[in-house]
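Re: the multi-chain job from yesterday

Posting the exact lines I submitted so nobody has to dig through the queue logs.
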Amino acid sequence: DTEVTQTPKHLVMGMTNKKSLKCEQHMGHRAMYWYKQKAKKPPELMFVYSYEKLSINESVPSRFSPECPNSSLLNLHLHALQPEDSALYLCASSQGHGGSTDTQYFGPGTRLTVL
Amino acid sequence: KNEVEQSPQNLTAQEGEFITINCSYSVGISALHWLQQHPGGGIVSLFMLSSGKKKHGRLIATINIQEKHSSLHITASHPRDSAVYICAVGGEKLTFGTGTRLTIIP
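And the result, structure tokens for all chains:
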């Protein structure tokens, strides 16, 4: 199984809502990532979990809250988002050795619209 | 920080044409990644290159570590190859190129 799955595929939420994005992999990878991608731009790294511990937070606003319940699952909890947070949210995983050869495998993404 | 540049930014070609996308980076690396993203979709990892050349089907990727340059070639291009192709360097914190939007016309 070389797949990273993400749910939901699409999400529309109001600025006062609370929602969660989910990501799952069964490749035995020990690093998992959240990216945000705006249209026609490359992905921007948000968070990295390594061995279930948060290792990188790219100064992301606190309205985004990541959670890694176990080595296969990664959640992104959303609260009080702004319309400018509308984007494609991508999850990725890798073996976790951190070197430049550590290939990241991406999920299909969740298209988020904040009204 | 490594600066990663791609060219061209946009490329339109007829079906069957040979395609070349270029990627240059500013700081020496151990490996470079080529990624593919279809419109509205997730990202697929095509190649991870440390040296030389790799081939997968109609896709060929080359890298020259000394010149800090990599190319992605597509032979006998097909409309389903239409996508954004992105090169990236780094480990946990990938630095992405700006992408090349490829459109293959039947």
